[in-house]
Structure formats: structure tokens, C-alpha cells
Write a structure and sequence with these properties.
Rossmann fold; alpha/beta; 31% helix; 6-stranded mixed sheet; 165 residues
Length: 165
């Protein structure tokens, strides 16, 4: 069985841990838990008849006090760049992180995951900004770790991208 490492990166409190918990364990907790260092989970998915064991590295969120250690990304087959639709600064952080991640691991598949789609009336990120990124070839999926919307799609899509790569 193929095993592939996927890193979850983004600013703090964007929902990286909640997305992994929803995908792996089908649970959501409204209680915020800060990730210290890295938390590793795994789940097997079936993609076009192939079993793929996804090793999910949930990295602590980057903020003004700590930068993500790029060494955690070594060996990644792909990554998910997670932003919080209700906080515009998380998109700015994701854009700078994407450049640093690519410098570290090269051009591996990634998806921009815009989380908290259950709160679209509170969003600070404009559709036009996401459309510009799509025009640059970025894959973007809207999710809600709370409701589960888009979560399976994100991991299935990244698995397909890895197999196609």
C-alpha cells in the first residue's frame, strides 16, 4: 500500500486540527485546542481502485511569535494550505507560507482550503481574491470542519493529485 505524507499548514486557529479530526474520526469539537509542534494522524483512502495511506501532519499554526519549522515538511507528497474565511490575515499568511513551503519541498500538489464555510456571512475574504488565485492555477476548496462540508472532497482531491503527480 502506498503511504503519502500530507502537511496541514496555515495561520493559527484556521481549523487545521478540526479538519483532520472531522476527516479521520468524523468528529467536531467547538473547543479550541492549540497544536504544539506537530500532531500525526492517518487514514486510508481508496482512489481509483488504489489504496492510499495518508499520513496527515497537522503542524502548529504560524503567528507573529512563531514560524512554522520548514523541516517538518521534508518528505511531503502534498500539503493543504488552510485559511479561515472569517479572517483575511490568514489568507495573507497562507500566501507567504506557500512560497516558503515551495522553496522547501519543491512543486508538490497543494490545495488552498478556505475553512468555516458555515460562516460565509462573516467572511472577510472576497470571492474575487479566490478567483484570482484560481486563474493562477490554484485548487481551492471551501470547507466547514463543523458541518463536514467539503472535508472529504479536500482529502480525496489531494489523494488524486498525488497519484497523478
Amino acid at each position: 500500500m502506498l503511504q503519502k505524507k500530507i502537511c496541514m499548514v496555515g495561520a493559527f486557529a484556521t481549523g487545521k486540527t478540526s479538519l483532520v479530526a472531522r476527516f479521520v474520526h468524523s468528529i467536531f469539537s467547538g473547543k479550541y485546542q492549540t497544536t504544539v509542534g506537530v500532531k500525526i494522524d492517518k487514514k486510508t483512502v481508496n482512489c481509483h481502485g488504489k489504496e492510499l495511506n495518508l499520513i496527515l501532519w497537522d503542524l502548529y499554526g504560524e503567528d507573529e511569535f512563531q514560524k512554522v519549522r520548514m523541516s517538518y515538511l521534508r518528505g511531503s507528497s502534498a500539503y493543504l494550505l488552510v485559511v479561515d474565511g472569517t479572517r483575511h490575515n490568514t489568507l495573507e499568511k497562507a500566501l507567504s507560507l506557500q512560497i516558503r513551503v515551495e522553496e522547501t519541498v519543491g512543486k508538490v500538489p497543494f490545495i488552498l482550503v478556505v475553512n468555516k464555510s458555515d460562516l460565509t456571512d462573516e467572511w472577510e475574504i472576497e470571492k474575487v481574491e479566490l478567483d484570482k488565485l484560481k486563474q493562477q492555477g490554484w485548487s481551492i476548496i471551501l470547507t466547514s470542519a463543523k458541518t463536514g462540508e467539503g472535508v472529504e472532497e479536500v482529502f480525496e482531491t489531494i489523494a488524486q493529485k498525488i497519484l497523478e503527480g
